[in-house]
Design a protein that fits this description.
347 residues, mainly alpha, ABC transporter involved in vitamin B12 uptake, BtuC, two-stranded antiparallel ribbon
Amino acid sequence: MKKYITWRHPKEFVSFQIETKSFLLLILLSVCLLLALIIGPSLGNKLLSPLEVVRTIAGISAGGNEFIVMNSRLPRTLVSILTGAALGLSGLILQGVIRNPLAAPDIIGVTGGASLAAVGFITYLSGTISISFLPIAAVSGGIIVSVFIYLMSWKNGVTPIRLILIGIGVSALMSAGTTFMLVLSPSSSAGQAYLWLTGSVYGASWENVYTIAMVIIVITPFVLLFSRSLNAQQFGDGVASGLGVKVEFHRMALLLFSVILAGVAVSVAGAIGFVGLIAPHIARALIGRQFASLILASTLVGGLLVFFADLIARTVFYPIDIPAGVFTAGIGAPFFLYLLFKNRNQF
């Protein structure tokens, strides 16, 4: 068996090479994701057979479960997978651009900015402006905070430790602002915002599915095109520039992609924490460090993480529907401490 699978465009416009082992692992992750799309709608207060779920999705079932599958469980399953995919890819981009294993949208303040903007929208504008504008508010908040963090971190360049520390400080500031708004807001909107902040895909709709799927479908090919640039940037800006990479332009474009992915995920599912930190590390352990493969692997792993967190949250503790963010934080916080200890000599 060949070690690498290679594809080249006939006019050499673009080429792609991947290890055969990585390719097989990506297929395995994809199969797991397809199984999740069947398992998710099968489990709940009313158990359905996988065959019944497949028949219902295909539109050939007459069992009377169409509403349960198509209007409740399948949208929720898809939103959990897509949210995790967006956060996993966003975290990988940040870790690649910043060259820091601790980087993640929720840790360096990107999610905090998106959350502040989203809670402000829910609290003060949801009654006058359509809720469909919530993703725009969340992405705008994430972009503004990201630019602020980047500028505050700049001093003859951006060092990883400075960016992380400033990001943590800004994240705390965003959290304080969010809490302040919740205290002053009416109890009805405060309850909605509080549940959203915990991170939950409860009540997911097909509109949510279309919103986040469209963003992932549009952005992922662009990130793949920047995979060689990300590989080069791991050797430092000087080496990357010597290899012909337009470092600053590529860095800003990739950061923008990361913020958009995290902002849309936050607007749909709330502040589900630590997925952007964990998913890229699991993907590296499985695939290696080539970003072309990592981009796809992080997306798939992130989707599976949030799917299983939500599945446990809504089935194990039934009839209580616990937010999925509780479980991702329970796994992610110890993992973050482990990474801090492991990389303590690098800072």
